[in-house]
Amino acid sequence: MRNAVAVLGIPFICLVCAVPWAVADAQAGGAAREHYSPYADRAFPERVYWGDTHVHTSRSPDAYTNGNRLDPDVAYRFAKGESVETRSGQRVRIAAPLDFLVVADHAEFMGVFPKLDQRDRELLQTALGRRWRGLYDDGQRYAVMQEWLDVLSGEKRLEEDASFRMSVWEEVGASAERFNEPGKFTALIGYEWSSQWEGNNLHRVVVFRDGAEKTNQALPLSSIESRDPEDLWRRLKHYEDLTGGDVIAIPHNGNASNGGMFANATFAGAPMTQGYAKTRARWEPLYEVTQVKGDAEAHPLLSPDDEFADFFTWDWGNFHTRERTPKEDWMLQHEYARPALKLGLKLEGELGANPFKFGLIGSTDSHTSFANASEDNFFGKFTNEGPATQRDTMIKYEVKRNTSFREVGYGAAGYAAVWATENTRGAIFDAMRRRETYATTGPRIAVRFFGGWAFNPTDVEQPDYARIGYSKGVPMGGDLTLAPEDGAPSFMIVAAKDPQGANLDRIQVVKGWMDGRGNLREEVHDVALSDGRTVDAATGKAPPLRHTVDVATASYRNSIGEAQLAVVWKDPEFDARERAFYYVRALEIPTPRWSVYDAVHFGLPFPSDLTPVIQERAYTSPIWYTP
Predict the structure, then answer these.
(1) Per residue in 44-70, is it b (16+ CB within 10 Å) or e — as a string?
(2) What sign does the CA torsion over 371, 376, 381, 387 have?
(3) Cβ(324)–Cβ(304) under 8 Å?
(4) pLDDT, tens digit, 9 for 90 and up, residues 178-189
(5) Strand intervals (E) in 318-390
(6) Cα 472 from Cα 495, distance rounded (Å)
(7) Are 144 and 132 contacting, i.e. CB atoms less than 8 angstroms apart?
(8) Does the model's pTM come out above 0.90?
C-alpha cells in the first residue's frame, strides 16, 4: 500500500478545476504585466458533468397511471435546480442542480394517457383513441390499462397512429429545446424502447446527439413494432443515414431480464457472429449499471469472494404481467456488468470482436419526473409512493417481504458522470460514445482513472496529473495494447468525496481476465485505504471501518474516512498474453439507507431484519487490455 496517498499526505488535488492562470512580465525593464492562459487549447476534459439519462414523466403510460401528472418541462426545471410542486402539493428542489438530463419516456403509447384524459382532438381521431376513450366513458379504465399491458407483453395487438405519434415526438423535441442552454445545461433528446419479451426486460434508452430539427425526421422505434434489439440498431442506423446525426442506445440494468440482457446468442437464438458483436458494440457503448430497481455491477453468487458484491441486489424474477417468472441461478451471469465484461473477453477470442465492450453509467429510472437519487430524500420510483405521508407504506412493504418489485429492492440511485470538454450536447454525447463515463449510486463522488505503461507513484502528486494521465496513458473507457517486454500496466486513480456527502472508505480496482486455459477469472484489489489501514497479507482483505451511523436519528459522522484518496497501482500478476479489463470501484464510509431516514421521519420502528447501513459507491468504465 505504499503507493496509496491520502489527501492529508499530499496537497489537495482538484478533480474538477483547471490549474490557475499564470502571470508573467511581458518584458524586463518594467513593462506592464499581462495575464495569459497557456491551457486554453487543451483538448482533454478537465471537468466532470453530472446527469440522469433515464427520467420518465407523465408521457409514460406506467408513470401516468401511477399518478404522475408532471410533464417534461417540470422534469427539466427540477434538474436545473428550480423549486417545483409535486402532485401532492409539496414544494421540492434538488439539493444540487444537474448538468444534463435525458427525458426518456416510453416509445410505446407515448403521451396517450394524459391526452385521453384531456380528450385530445387529434388522439380521438385515431382508432386507438376512440376505443380507449369509449372504455373510459363506460367506466372501464382498468380494461384500458389491461389492454395496454397485454399489448406490451405481446398477448394483444393494437396499432398506434403514426401521425399522432409524430405530433407527440415533436413535443418531446420542443420541450428539450426550451431548456437546452449550451454551456449551462444540456437537455439531450431521447426515449425508451421498452422490449419486454415474455416479461424479460430488455429495455434500452435511446439518446441523440442532435437537436429537434434532426430528431423530428424519424419516429422512435416502439417495441410493439419489434422486440428484437437488432431491429432497434437498424432503426438507429436508418436515422443516422437519413439525417447525418448521431445516436446511441443504453441498455437498462439487466437484473429483470432473466438471463436475456447479455445472452451469448442473438435475440432470435442464433449463434453470435463477428458482425453481430461489432454492431452491438457500435450502438451500445454504455450500460446502466445502477438505478432505483437494483444495482447490477456484481452478484454475491457469482463473486463470492467480493465482500461488497451484494448491494441493493434485486434478483428474484422478471416483469411477466400474468405471473412472475422466477430467477434461476444460471441467468445471473447474463445480467450483471462484471460477468458480462468477462464473457465479452471470451467472445472476443472466439469471434474477433467483443459485443460487451461497454462503459458504465448510473441513472434513476425515476417515474416521478424527478431526477433525485439521494438516500436522505428518496421520492420513490412512482408518484404514488411519495414524497408525501404515504411514504410510510414503503417501510411496511419491506416488512411484508412480498414479491412486488416496487416494494422491496429499491435503492435511491443513481447518476451518470461524464468527463467532457464542455456542457453541450455534442461534448456530453461524445464522452458517452468514447465511454469516458462512470456511475454512482447517488453521491457525486469525483473519480479520475488512467491506465498506461509508464506511470510512477509521484505522477498522482502533481497538480497537472490529468495532463500526465492523458499524455502517458488512456482514460476510463480506453484501450491498452502493445505491452512492453516484461512490463505491466499501471493505473493512476484519484477519488474525492461528494462535497455534501460522506467521506471515502477505499478505492478498489476490479480486474477481470481470461487465463491461458480459457477460464474467466476476477480479482478485487484494495489499492487505497483510509484511516491508515493496510490489507491483511493472510486474508487479502482490509479491516472494515467501524461505522458512525446512528439508526435512531438517521445520522452519521464524517469522523472516519478521507475526503480524497489517490494512488498509482501496478498489476502485480499481469500476463501480457491474456485479455483483461480493469475498472475502479470507490466506496464511501457507511451511511444510513433511505428507509432509515423514512422510519425516523414518520416515527416508525425500523424493522430489525433489514440492513439499515449501506456503502454508496462509484463504478468507472473499464480500461481494456488486448494482447
Answers:
(1) ebbbbbbbbbbbbbbbbbbbbbbbbeb
(2) negative
(3) no
(4) 999 999 999 999
(5) 359-362
(6) 19
(7) yes
(8) yes
